[in-house]
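--- STAGE predict ---
source: upstream dedup step, 1 unique chain passed
mode: sequence only
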Amino acid sequence: MPSPTTEERAPLLPSSHIPDAHGLPTPDADSPTERPRHTSLQITLSNLIALLLISAVVAIVTYFEQGLPDDPTRAALSILESAPVIDGHIDLPELVRVVYKNNITAFDLHERMPAHVDIPRIRKGHVGGFFWSVYVPCKDDGPDFLVPTNRVRDTLEQIDVAKLLIQQYSDTFLLATSTVEIKEAIRVGKVASLIGVEGGHQLGNSLAVLRQYQALGARYLTLTHSCNNAFADSAGISTPVPPTHGGLSKLGEDLVHELNRLGMLIDLSHTSDETAVQALQLSRAPVMWSHSSARAVHNHPRNVPDYILEMVGIGKGKKDGIVMVGFLVVWVWARVLIEQINFSSGFVANPGNASVAVVADHVEHIGRIAGRKHVGIGSDYDGVSSTPVGLEDISTYPALFAELYRRGWTRSELVGLASGNLLRVFEGAEATARQLSHLPPSMARYLNRTDL
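--- STAGE serialize ---
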């Protein structure tokens, strides 16, 4: 049976000539006299629909935001219960190395540890995950970076410590190597445990070593630590070190490409400004600063200057990324003490002057310049000798979120700060790796080697 539409026929006469019940022609809606009334009705209906849609969106957003308690502390706890913190940099493996000589039977993470991190305080701080930083000291290995060292051995031991602890305390931790695994760990109430390698000096000048770290679970590489290496120039500790390459070396460029291919995040903390700019421009994937702060708030070479923050974002001429604010005191005010372990006195404030409010200033400044979708938390707990007042250990994250809520940050912005921004950046690196999966491994090698 034909549909009513196919059976419908156009009238033989224009509608203006079809008589009404009184024998008068029916006005044509398209006639000059009727068109204004018809158009006015369309505009009114369109405006009404638009108003209803806007009202619905406003109501949803308002409900989402107003569902929080007025008290900033209670509001922060409410947010973190549904979106726990993923910290970009925790130095627990290095603490175990220095204090316990890598003996994981010499302590109990369920009991209070000597520095900033243990399981009770992790739970109190509403932690959903963190990168276990694997770090070995960055000592001089000669002008050509060829002095033999034990760094690769020591890095493997650090990875071993991290994975053994994750396994031993499987009631709390779950190894994660992807965003899917991070979300699953949080869903089942575990702490997603990722591995990051803190320095290109730990690669033994070899991309093959990088690939093996990735196979063992590492998901970011900090291009440098406090010394230059065969791949890139460092920011140094308290003052910039003389550059070796003017940023990235040729092998460093190959390293960036290989990190993109492997789906590992490029970490620009500790790098020189030139290294950071070149890596930002070269990388096809989003980048991160796992534990850095804002140089405009405190002028320290380890912090990120505004002109680099302006390169971070989504859109033409920008690169997606995240700056994860560190809690090291000197990063936010001044004065660096001699390094011990990975410890300095801090990069956020003068000792005695750093506070939750000062750290919030760094977060807000990065949010203003790069955008609030490009800032996260990278405390450096267990790797710093002093912390801001109010952020003494891993249990205190809610204090920072309460301070930012007090300053007007919305629930969605604080969810991004806690974990959402990092997950987006990591997903971007994973997407880039899928796009590059057809490429073979890089066979680039350090040309100063004499054995190949």
